[in-house]
Design a protein that fits this description.
The structure is a homotetramer. By secondary structure, the first copy, chain A, is of the alpha/beta class. In chain A, about 50% of the residues lie in helices and about 10% in strands. In chain A, the strands form two sheets. In chain A, strands 1-3-5-6-7 form a five-stranded parallel β-sheet. In chain A, strands 2-4 form a two-stranded antiparallel sheet.
Chain lengths: ~325, ~325, ~325, ~325
Amino acid sequence: MAPEGKDLRETNKNLDAVVQVLKEEQQRTGIKLLWGTACLFAHPRYVHGAATSCNADVFAYAAAQVKKALEVTHELNGEGYVFWGGREGYSTLLNTNLKREMDHLAAFLHMAVDYKKKLGFEGQFYIEPKPKEPTKHQYDSDAAACLNFLREYDLIDHLKLNLETNHATLAGHTMQHELEVAAAANALGSIDANTGDELLGWDTDQFPTSVYLTAQIMLTILKMGGFTTGGTNFDAKVRRESFEPIDLFYAHIGGMDAFARGLKIAAAIRKDGRLTEFVKKRYSSWDSGIGGKIEKGKAGFKELEAYMLKKGEVAANLSGRQEFLENLINEFI
Amino acid sequence: MAPEGKDLRETNKNLDAVVQVLKEEQQRTGIKLLWGTACLFAHPRYVHGAATSCNADVFAYAAAQVKKALEVTHELNGEGYVFWGGREGYSTLLNTNLKREMDHLAAFLHMAVDYKKKLGFEGQFYIEPKPKEPTKHQYDSDAAACLNFLREYDLIDHLKLNLETNHATLAGHTMQHELEVAAAANALGSIDANTGDELLGWDTDQFPTSVYLTAQIMLTILKMGGFTTGGTNFDAKVRRESFEPIDLFYAHIGGMDAFARGLKIAAAIRKDGRLTEFVKKRYSSWDSGIGGKIEKGKAGFKELEAYMLKKGEVAANLSGRQEFLENLINEFI
Amino acid sequence: MAPEGKDLRETNKNLDAVVQVLKEEQQRTGIKLLWGTACLFAHPRYVHGAATSCNADVFAYAAAQVKKALEVTHELNGEGYVFWGGREGYSTLLNTNLKREMDHLAAFLHMAVDYKKKLGFEGQFYIEPKPKEPTKHQYDSDAAACLNFLREYDLIDHLKLNLETNHATLAGHTMQHELEVAAAANALGSIDANTGDELLGWDTDQFPTSVYLTAQIMLTILKMGGFTTGGTNFDAKVRRESFEPIDLFYAHIGGMDAFARGLKIAAAIRKDGRLTEFVKKRYSSWDSGIGGKIEKGKAGFKELEAYMLKKGEVAANLSGRQEFLENLINEFI
Amino acid sequence: MAPEGKDLRETNKNLDAVVQVLKEEQQRTGIKLLWGTACLFAHPRYVHGAATSCNADVFAYAAAQVKKALEVTHELNGEGYVFWGGREGYSTLLNTNLKREMDHLAAFLHMAVDYKKKLGFEGQFYIEPKPKEPTKHQYDSDAAACLNFLREYDLIDHLKLNLETNHATLAGHTMQHELEVAAAANALGSIDANTGDELLGWDTDQFPTSVYLTAQIMLTILKMGGFTTGGTNFDAKVRRESFEPIDLFYAHIGGMDAFARGLKIAAAIRKDGRLTEFVKKRYSSWDSGIGGKIEKGKAGFKELEAYMLKKGEVAANLSGRQEFLENLINEFI
């Protein structure tokens, strides 16, 4: 938002000046701040990462920068703060001490958690998974990698995930997969609206227009009861070939419309009830009988062997009905 | 190993007959059993998964089958047991309750841990990550996903990872990445020697012949002090076009030779010392000064900001020397 | 369609018996045959390919089989014949004489062209691109590779392309790209309705349900004036988990509905006219002036340099309006 | 090489000044020019392509620029000229007239061929395939696509291919595949030494260090009798993290050494003779008998059916020996 100065002090001063304007604009328009963040990847000092740099000074600079960003976010009444590990990874494992770098990243986040308390900032912390680009491999490569990291370093109670479709597909997952994984861990905090091109291997940061995609996203969000934190942010870019100001309007309007349609479609599918009912029924063998016992922890290998020796073979499987369900979705598109 | 019978009882009987022969052959040849496993993916009953099937009966059958496999592995003095989640995933999220399926998988593994104790089997349990094929997505998709799952369900002390190159690349990672992730979590237990084709998207299960690959694998294994459990197993297949018995010999000899060369290369690189020294030196800013303070937990955002306000900008970054290091490796190939 | 016999003669006899029934069923129902083909990839004799086998006998067998298939197709009044090079490629280039194999493939197709004339069969010949699976690499890997082959061996007047979405995406192209490439060469002959999963690397052969996809397909087909040969065939499969007979109905009905909706959407977009008009206008600098001269062949490097030295810099570029156009499509979904 | 001026005239003048220095340096050092080229992709005027721009003026500017580049290349005694279609493609097919753009590209190349004659420049023309990045899809996407284009527009006698490993893998092919396809068409003219990362989806432009790769490249080049035009050029880049001048030396020396080792390995494999002999023998059924007849054009479907009806089934297939051959290569690494 603000230009880098000749040193940290001047950079912070530049930022303060911009924040003043933002605050006035917030009051004038009533627009609120979804979340704040700091750019820890564009400046050459971050060439080897920020919190995971091999250079301890870089960690210190990043810490100072995030401290300032937290203060500014707090001042602007931001509802959250996103950690986007743009260079927290490696270009080659040959020169990398992966364990030491991850320890540093955890230390950094714990410092942020501590400082948040000191500051009295009550917004939600998010981490945004991204597998690669600009680096060969980033530590926050997907939802599972982030959750694993957060669990290992006792950070799981302090950060939720901010998921983006294009980062999901770059990691080889559907967006719906990432959403379901995060939601299952009670860690789905916010979404980044950008989408990508499944046939290209870099972060195309496109505006979403597929209503299949937005309907899937909304199905998961509605299923988990809606967001209690976060929301939907656009940091998508118009294509390099779309360089006129009006393109920004087409893009944002189109993206927002796609999400609005996705929400309506998902709500209609839920109101219809057939999809939810199908899934519920599909797992009904777990609601009672041997399945119920297993879920209640009342059966072990011995009991299950006895049960199956008596029965000989399993009760018939039913079709997964993928084609039927895909048709069902199409009724609402 | 043994044909399925008309029901579980007969299947178990068939297995007992084969195990008797295996035991005699073990005594005759002195060959030991690295690990046992059960096939919970080929039979149509496992079409929707085994421990993660929507059909509770299938879970029960799988439990009985693993119980028997554990007993047999114990009887044959197996040094471990591998869980390979061949169908523990989904074909479409439309019909899937991901959270409930993962809860079931965890329950299954806890039952296995319990039964292992009852049995007195002291071998190591392993889980083998694989992202997809035959399903669209498997829960054990990569090392991080497995570790996340094991941590979430308090299984992290009971299972280590058995890693395969082809499964790593199908998940979009290098084998070295997966090894380093597992080793950093103290969870690298064993490796599956199969490799794949980085330009193909299915599990080609090829024999490894690249000495770059085997040297990288051995570098990580030597760095962690060698295996204390597990080893290197081949379940690679000769190509469909390599259908003569002699092809099996070419393949196994070539694969084993590649690992032997990889071990020699890795040992030579470590003896040479330049690689280890380079990495050590690269992180030297963390051994003392501000880096040392951070690692000891003696600095927070406030101290780091003060440090950097005073300093203004970071100490110069050094080149990552990727090209130099790649050349260095080539000296040993 | 018919089981293999103990030798070619018996296999042909088996086929004759089945063809008799098919003929009667055609007369009874009025259903016509879109195209015929022969399976030159499933039997172990084709392990190294059919027309591109290193074993000349295999070429001879394949020739006999295609001869019979052409006769049968002719007898059933088939409107075309598809060559699907299921194994016409290689597993490793180490053992492969690529040039010799491609020469053989061309010889094979020329024999087919000759025999078609002898037979008086006037249906269209098609070749179906597919990049890989089961082999590592197939010669007919995409539309451009097929066209290049057909041009090199003087077959371009005798075969058109039969395109499939999943084969397009396995080759790294969108289906629309493949359609446009084929149509630009006047070689788009027919389409295979199967679609795939862009995140999986094997031929999933799914039924199409995305109306974005089917609308794109129909836009190209309508733009070229509709098919004069061929049509839309399904050789999609229900998923392994969709094993009940009713799944076949859900799948075919859903796929056909998706194409019907795609056709309606494409027709509406064309009737609306904005998309066509946008593209026409975008290239309007080529309709007259310097562009017109270039297209008429009336300018060379010298004239163009003189023109530009005088002008100094190009007339302003206009935005490509990708986001606007994506929104426009969404108006019709 | 030279900065853009305020218009074409000044830009050309800037270039002339630099060329003068280059010429003197050539005379001083004896270093020759492998090939010349023009940058038709970095300046914003080329946002929609150069020869394939929707803006005819851009075509004219590109023509003037290539005219000048040809003159300069001729003046510097360049041995060839490379067309690198950095933006000759599309970002979205929605706004693209693919056929018209390809017609323009062909017109452009024909103008270049004409001007080359006028100029008396006798160097070889090359086209360098690249599938994508920065655009979504480029027309010169791989060797087959280039050859198809050159054949369609009667340019096949005027351009050869300049192949790069990373462009091959981005297109889903091995470098060896691209080399073999080009060599089979007698169109392999030169190679670009850059390699990439098979797990990343963008043009990483790395220096080659795998001796497996360089040995494969040299095997094909030696098999075709060596280059009669062209050579091996580096336009690889050091990694962003390798920013010290010495990294350039490590990189170029390492890359050149890798090619030198590859050449020695390939020469040794050829001298050994087993690989060549294996492939020759594998196709021996084509040297006489029914195979010989087919190759001589003395058999059609009828004769082959008669032959096979008599024989009943094919002569036994032999193993493709992939594993044996991979081991054989390893003997020379």
